[in-house]
Specification:
It contains 10 helices and 8 strands. By secondary structure, the chain is of the alpha/beta class. The protein has an 8-stranded mixed beta sheet, sandwiched between helices. Helix 2 crosses helix 9 and helix 5 packs parallel to helix 7. It binds 1,4-dihydronicotinamide adenine dinucleotide.
Length: 314
């Protein structure tokens, strides 16, 4: 009898596992038609969440659009025995962002977890960057994150039982990268946005964490070195477990954090300030020459800067 009860709890007819860390939760993943968003969505469903799979279905640079990317991921989730619905909206459009959250509520009754993941690239060295490349990248990443988080945050406040939000930054924004001034600015903006919002969310039990991933996807397939099996070593499904865990109740103490996830390594990024010149504030200001002397005294001990990446474009 005991055995049959356990069997009933853990398995359904198809043999799929029923008990998951996100059972009963409702999640929205933007840009979930491929790459990291897809693996987040599939793992969420495997862990028992109902998922809104948003994707505009455009090209890597954000042009075009189609329903097929989101639909395919929904089909995969349903084939696993999970629950999912597709949404084809543009994260940078306020009405679409509001409708993504409405889609979660209309189909599954609520929203517990938002993963703001959608993104595009328009890489160029700064001397060749034009306003259109700048604007569209800021629009999709920074404004798109703002609009989807805004809609989700208000829904979570209204529900009154908190929630979890993960925004997607990048080492390009947190550390820097050649040819990505537009993208780096947007991704640094997203991280700054999250560092402020998490403080406001504490009052409502809404957690806000930041992901800086590294994964092989159509966005990065020509950035990683060739012939090193990056497709497998840095497959996007290796990033998703941390992200999905952040939506679980076990992560209720974790907010305002920045995680760097590449392959199977999960790291916390936290800032450290290094003394360069410090004296009591009751004293007058340093002279310019004194500052120069202080820098010269400890320059060799400064942390090494980020080494520029060699990129094959102008
Ligand atoms: P991807 O190109 O495979 O996935 C991005 C998805 O977002 C695409 O399916 C695309 O159709 C969708 N999308 C684009 N614009 C959209 C819009 N306006 N509205 C709705 N959906 C839209 O790329 P990947 O690598 O999976 O990237 C996911 C996120 O992770 C992005 O924010 C990216 O900037 C970030 N990231 C990825 C890294 C990596 O190593 N793959 C490194 C650092 C950050």
């Amino acid at each position: 009898m005991l055995y049959s009860c356990i069997f009933f709890i853990f398995f359904k007819k198809s043999g799929e596992i029923l008990m998951g860390m996100l059972d009963g939760k409702v999640a929205l993943v933007t840009g979930a038609g491929g790459g990291l968003g897809e693996t987040h969505a599939l793992l969420l469903a495997k862990e028992g969440a109902s998922v809104v799979v948003n994707d505009l279905g455009g090209a890597r640079d954000g042009t075009g659009g189609s329903a097929s990317m989101a639909d395919l991921v929904v089909e995969k989730i349903k084939a696993m025995g999970g629950q999912a619905v597709a949404d084809y909206g543009n994260v940078a459009n306020e009405e679409d962002a509001n409708n993504m959250v409405k889609c979660a509520v209309d189909n599954f009754g609520k929203l517990d977890f938002l993963i703001a993941n959608a993104g595009i690239l328009r890489d160029k060295s700064f001397k060749n960057m034009d306003n259109a490349m700048w604007d569209v990248v800021i629009d999709v990443h920074l404004r798109g994150t703002y609009l989807t988080v805004k809609a989700a945050y208000h829904q979570m406040m209204e529900q009154g039982h908190g929630g979890s939000i993960v925004v997607t930054s990048s080492t390009s924004g947190l550390l820097g990268n050649f040819g990505q001034t537009n993208y780096g600015a947007a991704k640094a903006g997203i991280a700054g946005f999250a560092r402020c919002l998490f403080q406001e969310g504490l009052k409502y039990n809404i957690r806000v964490n930041t992901l800086a991933p590294a994964a092989w996807s159509r966005l990065t397939s020509d950035i990683f070195p060739e012939g090193q099996n990056m497709e497998e070593l840095l497959s996007p499904d290796k990033v998703s477990p941390l992200v999905v865990w952040l939506g679980s109740d076990d992560a209720k103490e974790v907010t305002g954090r920045q995680f760097m996830v590449a392959g199977n390594s999960v790291q916390l990024i936290s800032w450290q300030a290094h003394d360069v010149a410090v004296k009591d504030n009751t004293d007058g200001p340093w002279t310019v020459a004194e500052i120069g002397e202080k820098v010269a005294e400890n320059f060799e001990k400064w942390p090494r800067g980020i080494q520029p990446t060699k990129r094959a474009f102008e």
